[in-house]
Amino acid sequence: MLDRTRQLWEKQDQHVGDRLRLFAAVADAVDAVTVLYPGSYVDLAPSFVWPSVTYVDVDRRARQFFGDEDGVRELLTEHGADPAHHAVRFIGADYSDPLDLRDGEFDLVISLYAGFVSQHCTPYLRVGGTLLANPSHGDAALASIDPRYRLTAVVTSQAGAYSVSSHNLDSYLIPQRNVPVTAESLHASGRGVAYTRSPFAYLFERVL
How far apart, in whole angstroms, are the C-alpha atoms of residue 145 and residue 147? Predict the structure, then answer.
């Protein structure tokens, strides 16, 4: 493994195992095999959990990281994932541009701290598939008003442990301020909405 690959991963995994715990909790709740991760940077943790993950990012460090195929395989092995059965694909592109991917190709799309992923990548998610979105940058709020999606669960975090719940979903996504949430307002602000309850992330099912 290149030293730079190791350094990039250790910086990404600063809170050791945090993303692995997140994705493992989601995997227990969601039936998924193929995963799309736009704006991934060097977060390889989904591949420790799911057998087929496609990463998309324009950052040159992400290109370097995923270009070190031996290093990626070594990290997979270190985290209990057999490289022979875990497909890792990297696309060095802006996810807001058309990607060389099939409509409905993926069971799960991950949107974490990467902007309006759902706006551009929903076509690649199959109907019945799941969008994992956190409140940062407004993508969870955008999905909440998108008729193609319905909220199915929330992801909560406590003391470094993650859990997924589908209880009392009508108590979530309620803005603290009585103002309309629109795509225009979200794009104008570039950030999420302050809700009365604040889980770490939301799971939305694509229904249309």
Answer: 6
